């Protein structure tokens, strides 16, 4: 979910016992004109009984926002990565390079990995070059094909298990 650092909703969730891992938008990203109207960052929220622990990926990303966390419940353990790539900027080779670097690092984990978020690539258009490259990149890591839904023609959300 997008949030503001002064979000009352986040405060209420924490007060009700929800686990929250958040990442405010970096100053470098705020300086990027396409992100000047964003709302501060991304947050993972889990209900009572599910523990979220932040994971530092150890690199500074310039083409997308990223939040990574271990998720532990009584039944399972996995790593989630939440990705947001601004839709008002062109998809560049640097985006795919940075995403590959993050996936390389995540591949060192023994736990299942789930990639979720909004990459703002029209994945339902299988002939679209950026959609092809995105899916080929995920395939290289042994993923299932993205499960995508279209909220509007330019805004694609997806969940991918790696």
The number of E-state strands comes to: 8
Strand order across the largest sheet: 3-4-5-6-8-7
* Distance between the first and last residues' Cα: 22 Å
CA-atom Rg in angstroms = 16 Å
Counting structural domains, the number is: 1
Secondary-structure element order, N to C: HEHEEEEHEHEE
Helix content: 10-25%
Mean pLDDT: 77
Strand content: 25-35%
Largest sheet: 6 strands, mixed
SS class: alpha+beta
Q: State the shape.
A: globular
List the helices and strands and how they pair.
Blueprint: H1 8-15, E1 19-24, H2 27-31, E2 41-46, E3 51-54, E4 65-72, E5 77-84, H3 93-106, E6 113-118, H4 129-139, E7 147-152, E8 155-161
Parallel strand pairs: 5-6
Antiparallel strand pairs: 1-2, 3-4, 4-5, 6-8, 7-8
Summarize this entry quickly:
This protein is 23% helix and 31% strand. The protein is of the alpha+beta class and 162 residues long.
Please name the defining characteristics of this protein.
alpha+beta; globular; 23% helix; 162 residues
Notes on the protein architecture:
- By secondary structure, the protein is an alpha+beta fold.
- The chain has 4 helices and 8 strands.
- It has one domain.
- The strands form 2 sheets. The protein has a 6-stranded mixed sheet, with no helix packed on it.
- Strand 4 and strand 5 form a beta hairpin.
- It is globular.
- The model is unreliable at 149-158 (pLDDT under 50).
């Amino acid at each position: 979910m997008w949030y503001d650092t002064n979000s009352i909703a986040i405060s209420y969730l924490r007060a009700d016992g929800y686990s929250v891992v958040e990442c405010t938008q970096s100053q470098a990203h705020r300086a990027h004109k396409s992100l000047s109207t964003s709302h501060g960052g991304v947050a993972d929220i889990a209900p009572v009984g599910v523990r979220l622990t932040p994971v530092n990926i150890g690199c500074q990303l310039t083409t997308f926002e990223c939040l990574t966390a271990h998720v532990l419940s009584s039944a399972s353990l996995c790593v989630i990565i939440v990705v947001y790539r601004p839709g008002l900027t062109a998809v560049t080779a640097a985006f795919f390079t940075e995403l590959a670097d993050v996936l390389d690092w995540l591949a060192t984990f023994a736990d299942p990995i789930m990639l979720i978020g909004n990459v703002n690539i029209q994945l339902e258009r299988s002939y679209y070059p950026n959609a092809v490259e995105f899916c080929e990149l995920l395939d290289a890591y042994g993923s299932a094909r993205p499960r995508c839904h279209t909220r509007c023609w330019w805004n694609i959300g997806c969940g991918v298990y790696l």
